[in-house]
From TrEMBL:
Name listed for the protein in its UniProt record: NADPH-dependent 7-cyano-7-deazaguanine reductase
Claim: Mitochondrion is one of the keywords in the record: no
UniProt keyword terms in alphabetical order: Cytoplasm, NADP, Oxidoreductase, Queuosine biosynthesis
Oxidoreductase in keyword set: yes
Annotated region described as Disordered, given as residue ranges: 1-29
Biased composition (Polar residues): 12-21
Compartment list: Cytoplasm
Species whose genome carries this gene: Teichococcus wenyumeiae
Class of enzymatic activity (EC top level): oxidoreductase
Annotated catalytic residues: C52 (thioimide intermediate), D59 (proton donor)
Amino acid sequence: MSSHDVSGLTMLGQNTQQPTTPEEAVLERVPNPHPGSRYCVRFTAPEFTSLCPITGQPDFAHLMIDYVPGDWLVESKSLKLYLTSFRNHGAFHEACTVGIGQRLAETLSPVWLRIGGYWYPRGGIPIDVFWQTGEAPAGVWIPPQDVPNYRGRG
């Protein structure tokens, strides 16, 4: 597949059903058009939703995913569908955040990847979860995530 060949993709440009679970969701990848260059790709999902596995109440997070690609990029429509598949999925904040990071790392084999899950409070305590594959590579501009901690009304 060339860097612009989308013939192997099943979602891009297609009418696609929303997966009902993260396990059912397919993450697709496309070749990196600049495999010899080191650069950072960022996805921001400010309205991520999952369910508390105990109460079934909704949980909301602002997710930030940064990665330095190797041979592959994540196809963005498949990532959007994957992330929205959590809307009816019961899992703790840590399981969602780390699981998303690990699934992306397994799919893409990036040079480096990190995810920040900035969760809105329920029960009065926000829980922020951070995971990365290792040290960030030298010589790549990786901007800070700069998502403010929850401050309530203060």
